[in-house]
Structure formats: structure tokens, C-alpha cells
Amino acid sequence: MARFGIAAATSLDRWCRLYREGGPEALEPGRRGRPEGPGGRTRERELEERVRKLEAQVAYLKKSIALKAEKSSQTGRKPRS
User: Which of 8, 15, 35, 67 is the most exposed place for a label (fewest CB within 10 A)?
Assistant: First the structure.
């Protein structure tokens, strides 16, 4: 323990238990910080929502333009920009 700078035997015991239960992956550093709450949003989720909203807006505008073009072709008038 002194050679590797391990201060307490409890740390070593915990590492041994984690290794026995989960293998070497269990000793990898975990995520730090406050856990996300049930209604919490991650940055990735916020961006995904924004993309969905923008895609819906684009689809709406395309449909609106198509309907205006169709209506203009039926009346024989040029569509306005």
C-alpha cells in the first residue's frame, strides 16, 4: 500500500470487491457529478428536440409552398415570392 500511495485498506478492499463482482471494467472511472433527475435534460436530448422541431417547421413550410403553387396553377396565376 505504501509503495502505490494507497492511504487506507478500505480502498483496497473495495477495489477487490468491485473487481470480483464486475471484472476489470468495474474499476474504470465512473461518471462524476450529480445524476440526472427523472425530468432532467441532457444537452444531447435538448439538441434532438430542437432538430425535431426544426424538421417539423421545414416540412410545414414545404407543404405550404406546395399548396400555394398548386392553388396558383389551378387559377393560372404566378405564385408570389
Answer: 35
Q: Which residues contact 69 (CB under 8 A, 6 or more apart)?
A: 79
Nearest to 66 by CA among 74, 52, 51: 74
Please choose, from the candidates 36, 37, 14, 8, the residue with its C-alpha nearest in 3D space to the C-alpha of residue 27: 14
pTM to 2 decimal places: 0.43
Q: What is the reported pLDDT for 40? A: 62
Helix (H, G, I), strand (E, B) or coil at 64: helix
Which parts of the chain sit beneath pLDDT 70?
31, 34-41, 76-81
